Amino acid sequence: MGCQDDLLVKKVYEIYDNISRLETLKPSKDVNMLFTQLVLICMPPNPIDVTKLCKRVQDMRSKLIRLCGEAEGLLESHFSTLLGSFDNPLDHINIFPYYSNYLKLSLLEFTILGKHCSHVPSRVAFIGSGPLPLTSIVLASLHLRTTSFHNYDIDESANSLALNLVSADPDLSNRMFFHTIDIMDVSKELKDYDVVFLAALVGMDKEEKTRVVNHLAKYMAPGAYLMLRSAHGARGFLYPIIDPCDLRGFEVLSVFHPTDEVINSVVIARKYPMPIHTQDHGLGPIILPSKCSEVQVFNPLNHGNMIEDLAMEEQLT
């Protein structure tokens, strides 16, 4: 590592130590301050490859990602409960402090999907929707206004809070559905979806994520789209990183790395119409290598030209 990397890792370690000493990760002044510091350190574009750091740092990163996931879940539960106390929760949704980030991320994902999918999807699945399913809500409200959204989460209390948010809305209550189940126990239903979104924190390490992706590759409809959230550079201390070459059974279409306050990278892939085999049939499905190294860098600092920028990128490729 270079000096700059050493300094970054040192700062992340210090914050990790402080976070790990907290009695609870529920929203509070101390919790909010530490996670804000962590995000601000990891947000600036940085060429560091956190997956190649030493084992000691890797172990810390793995624990930190789980702490971030726990804190994120508690934050969403807190605000979902608060929103649920209103007669019309969605009228007050902008009280969630990161709502604007979800607006940007959802627009980015919708725009990327529109580049590759020629029709409006009729049924979409969101895996790991949580107690505050903002992506589904924003996409259904602003972008995919005729699409039905099936939200999957393993936590019954999360789904209960989420359902309460949309039950008072006459439109979304008819188009948003919530399923309490481990996605690894869902099989034939997956073929019913045109698009499957996989939340960043479903599968918190490479092995877990790969297991979920392989399950989706087995049961999703041929030609259906998979939208995944990853991370890039130092942002890999906050979220798991997806290597496009690990998406066996899928053709990776694009990878976008935002450089603003939208933390997650976006990967879109399409399930192959049929398994691709090598001449030695015993080796099983493989992914074409041509797309593995293709990374489209997206810079959304000029938000007004987001769609035009993406259109230009499409022409260049």
Automatic annotation (TrEMBL):
GO terms for molecular function: nicotianamine synthase activity. The lineage of its organism: Eukaryota, Viridiplantae, Streptophyta, Embryophyta, Tracheophyta. GO terms for biological process: nicotianamine biosynthetic process. Belongs to the nicotianamine synthase (NAS)-like family. SUPFAM superfamilies: S-adenosyl-L-methionine-dependent methyltransferases. It comes from Aquilegia coerulea (Rocky mountain columbine). It catalyses: 3 S-adenosyl-L-methionine = nicotianamine + 3 S-methyl-5'-thioadenosine + 3 H(+). Synthesizes nicotianamine, a polyamine which serves as a sensor for the physiological iron status within the plant, and/or might be involved in the transport of iron. This is Nicotianamine synthase. Its EC number is 2.5.1.43. Signal peptide: none annotated.
